[in-house]
Design brief:
five-stranded antiparallel beta sheet; 2'-5' RNA ligase superfamily protein; Cyclic Phosphodiesterase, Chain: A; 33% helix; Cyclic_Pdiesterase; 6 helices; disordered N terminus; alpha+beta
Length: 199
């Protein structure tokens, strides 16, 4: 029998049943989201197997934890995130992942690297309770599609390699999303506001 794995770590049946998946997300503003949705709709009309990611957002960090740890995690994350400055995300061009997903390139990585470094205390906390290490994304991207089947993947990549894209949006808040199991739609359980731009 194959042992289930989450984020590369083997888990017992008991752990699989008791650990929730948490994602700290940065979402584009409404205007940018509408542009992204139009791009997704175009792609799906042209390549029917290029299923859009819904909703589209940037994963800042991802971790597994028990639900009884949630209140402490939220307090720690509020302290960490509330002192981080808001920042602008610039999107330029497209790329493809080894998982055969198409994504939009995030240009400035420094704000995400700062957040990843600050999230170390969360990683230490969940590890102390025998949870898998947190994934902290220092080179994030904005996924556009789910995995594209092999027969269309090369065609999609060839078309989008030469396509131009320039989008920009301000990140003023981060959302914590919880999934109790793989089939569940993620539920927002907290919103963390960043420091406002003083300029």
């Amino acid at each position: 029998m194959e042992i289930p794995t989450i984020m590369g770590h083997q888990l017992t049946d008991r752990a699989v049943n008791t650990l929730n998946r948490y994602r700290l997300m940065a979402y584009p503003d409404m205007e940018t989201e509408l542009i992204i949705q139009a791009e997704q709709q175009y792609m799906q009309r042209r390549y029917r197997t290029a299923l859009p990611v819904q909703p589209t957002g940037i994963v800042v960090a991802e971790f597994m934890a028990r639900e009884d740890m949630e209140a402490t995690l939220i307090r720690w994350m509020h302290r960490i995130i509330s002192i981080q400055p808001s920042f602008r995300v610039n999107i330029q061009g497209f790329g493809a992942l080894s998982s055969k997903q198409l994504y939009m390139r995030v240009q400035e990585q420094q704000p995400f690297q700062q957040l990843a470094g600050a999230m170390q205390v969360v990683d230490q906390y969940i590890r102390s309770y025998d949870c898998p290490p947190a994934k902290r994304f220092t080179h994030p991207c904005l996924p556009l599609t789910e995995a594209v089947p092999d027969e269309e993947f090369e065609k999609v990549v060839l078309e989008y390699a030469g396509r131009k894209l320039n989008l920009s949006f301000e990140v003023k808040e981060l959302l914590l999303i919880r999934n109790r199991h793989a089939a569940e739609t993620g539920k927002q359980i907290n919103l963390f506001r960043l420091q406002p731009d003083r300029i």
